[in-house]
Amino acid sequence: MSNPILQTFPLGFPWQTQDPFLFCVYHLDHFPKGNGEMGPDPALLKGKSLGNDFNPNQPWRMYHGQTIPGFPYHPHRGFETITIVNKGYCDHSDSLGAAGRFGEGDVQWMTAGRGVQHSEMFPLLHDDVENPMELFQIWLNLPKSGKFVEPHFKMLWHEDIPVINEGNAQIKVVAGNYKGTQANAPAPDSWAANPENEVAVWNIHVDANSEYTLPKANSEVTRTLYFYQGSEIFFEDGKIIPNFGIELDPSQEVTFKVGDEKAHFLLLQGKPIQEPVAKYGPFVMNTEQEIQQAMEEYRLTQFGGWPWPYPDNVHDKDRGRFALYPDGKLVEKDK
């Protein structure tokens, strides 16, 4: 049997991905106590490059936020975002009039399609304790036939996401099918909506000093395992340390042993779309001409404008988790 490990690579910012995925970023921020207005104490902002604070050597970042961490309004077209918030909270607002607060294990699946603006802010809701945040954002491509579908967003609340306890491992099934356990349905126009594409997004946690076997896929897909936290894992032919990605042969099971610390992984898998990709910032199309058209349309229409009072819109501090959809439907969840 051949080696199931095709290659390994260091995890940069963002993480290296394979078709059908475009981008994956991991945010781990040890945010301080809030100042009562959902931001940090202004004294802590001295020395930060406000508006462009991505310093990986600091325990937390403001990103593009000026007073509250996060990403004020910005456009997308031609792909989807999958945002997994394991710790902390994210406040969503968009040009469709939709909004939400999600976190502590929730996932938002958003299809940008023909074009949408949204903001993603990270409110510091707790003033008496620190506000740690752990978040993945994954960009999943849309095929040419789906580039101009209507924008859509869907919440996968953590109470509803399948979590499998398998011996010494815990597998959170955000997308796909894990040994017969099917994830919640993705957004309707997603590449992941067709089971034949075998798209999988799994957050896997394996106890220290134990062994885990990753099942093989059923078809020709790309498969990448991101080892983002732990001490080390051992395969037959050697050791891999944290902050490395592992490109795997999907036709083989893979067994590894975990070292002295619990190991944490993200797995991304899917059938490649195999179409040309043209990217410019928040736009992903098939040709450079389509990118230019997207930029021109955004200049002219702002993809529907911005119905919120602030570019870095956040929701009431004391509000729990919720989703307000473009059709006016409101879903309230306990905080």
What order do the helices and strands come in, and which of them pair?
Blueprint: E1 5-10, E2 21-31, E3 70-76, E4 79-87, E5 89-94, E6 99-103, E7 107-111, E8 116-121, E9 131-141, E10 152-156, E11 163-166, E12 169-175, E13 177-178, E14 181-182, E15 200-206, E16 211-214, E17 222-229, E18 233-235, E19 238-240, E20 244-248, E21 254-258, E22 263-270, E23 278-280, E24 283-285, H1 288-301, E25 322-324, E26 330-332
Protein name: Pirin family protein
Domain Pirin N-terminal: 59-140
Family: Belongs to the pirin family.
Characterize the structure shown.
This protein is mainly β and 335 residues long. It folds into two domains: 127 residues, Sandwich (Jelly Rolls); 168 residues, Jelly Rolls. It is built from one helix and 26 strands. The chain has a seven-stranded antiparallel beta sheet, with no helix packed on it. Strand 18 and strand 19 form a beta hairpin. The longest helix is centred in the last third of the chain and has 14 residues. The protein is globular. The relative contact order is 0.20. The mean pLDDT is 96. It comes from Flagellimonas iocasae. Belongs to the pirin family. This is Pirin family protein. InterPro entries: Pirin (IPR012093), Pirin_C_dom (IPR008778), Pirin_N_dom (IPR003829), RmlC-like_jellyroll (IPR014710), RmlC_Cupin_sf (IPR011051).
